[in-house]
Specification:
By secondary structure, the chain is of the alpha/beta class. It contains five helices and 20 strands. The strands form six sheets. Strands 1-10-9-5-6 form a five-stranded antiparallel sheet. The protein has a four-stranded mixed sheet with strand order 7-4-2-11. It has a four-stranded mixed sheet with strand order 18-17-15-20, with helices on one face. The longest helix is centred in the N-terminal third of the chain and has 26 residues. About 5% of the residues have low confidence.
């Protein structure tokens, strides 16, 4: 188990500080055994320096606030941009020797001294190791000021919870049965090669360049294409069984995480082709839909999905007539 970067007590003694304390003990023993006044003076000076160092180090980080905000969507293990906001709320003291710590960074990030009342923003690239919801980040500010005897910490705060999407695992998308198959539900308005225009949208890989809308592209300063209607489609509702016999079993949890990654990849692939996709798990439902909004809804549902005990687990939500449920394992 990895130790947290920011301890709950927000203070740790350094190796140098531990050696310093041991040296104080040696001097204290020598002064006691010999009665040498010079050793007592040395011991008093060492202890005073340690006290002053503790007071100054505490004051150095006491007025520091650190706030983390994501820029764009966050996908597990992939580099993501984070906006950091540092503020020194003290009126007279400059915060010095600061480092920013985050589990997604390769090492501590140096922060230039903050003058009294100064507010500073910076953008860094980090990564979150796993999908899920981050409400209390293992990140914050570290300082060894002034003598390096102690490490003082200040935990960072979040502007809002961070939703870390699962990393899609490439996997083939099974063929969607035609509308003539049993249980098919026709959808008269979907993306396709018909003559009628359904809507205008951003260009994505695989679109026909002949569908580019030149005037709208020039006005929006990005590629815009006409999305045409087709005659029929099938709705696919992807499903994951989140009811596990032993929700804490690492082997079952690893298979559960792989299923989530495969489900994300297949849903994104179907949506990128203009299809309609939904998502279900036990006690979880995302109604079928299409477009960028549906993409975000499915990914967020996958990010929030948790394993539950199979005993007493709820059943899957009911499907609309004609929808297909595809269990991803």
């Amino acid at each position: 188990m990895n130790h947290p970067l920011i301890p709950d007590w927000e203070i740790r003694i350094t190796n140098f500080g531990l050696g310093y304390i041991l040296m104080c003990l040696v001097v204290a023993i020598g002064a006691t055994n010999t009665g040498n006044n010079g050793l007592y003076l040395v011991l008093a000076g060492m202890l005073a320096a340690m006290v002053v160092s503790g007071v100054l180090s505490r004051r150095n980080v006491r007025g520091i606030s650190c706030r983390i905000e994501p820029i764009g969507e966050i996908v597990a293990t992939r580099p993501a941009l984070l906006r950091l906001t540092f503020e020194n709320r003290l009126r007279r003291t400059t915060a010095q020797a600061l480092f920013f710590l985050h589990e997604g960074l390769p090492g501590p990030l140096w922060v230039d001294p903050l003058r009294p009342g100064e507010r500073r923003e910076m953008v860094v690239e980090g990564a979150f190791p796993r999908r899920g919801i981050v409400r209390k980040p293992d990140a914050g500010v570290l300082s060894r000021f002034p003598l390096g005897l102690f490490r003082k910490y200040r935990r960072a705060s979040l502007g809002a919870e961070i939703v870390v999407y699962p990393l899609p695992e490439p996997s083939p998308l099974a063929e969607v049965p035609s509308e003539d198959s049993r249980g098919g539900r026709p959808h008269p308005h979907r993306r396709g090669g018909g003559s009628d225009i359904r809507t205008l949208r951003d260009f994505v890989a695989g679109d026909d360049p002949r569908d580019l809308h030149w005037k709208q592209s020039a006005r929006m300063r990005r590629w815009i294409v006409r999305e045409r209607e087709a005659e029929r489609d099938r709705v696919v509702v992807f499903a994951i069984d989140n009811a596990l016999e032993a929700p804490t079993d690492p082997i079952l949890l690893a298979a559960f995480e792989r299923a989530i990654s495969r489900c994300a990849a297949q849903a994104l692939l179907l949506l990128s082709r203009g299809g309609e996709a939904g998502f279900q798990a036990r006690g979880v439902k995302v109604s079928a839909g299409s477009g960028r909004g549906q993409r975000a809804r499915i990914l967020e549902a996958l990010a929030r999905l948790e394993a539950i005990p199979s005993e007493g687990a709820p059943s899957y939500p009911a499907l609309r007539r004609g929808d297909l449920r595809r269990l991803v394992t």
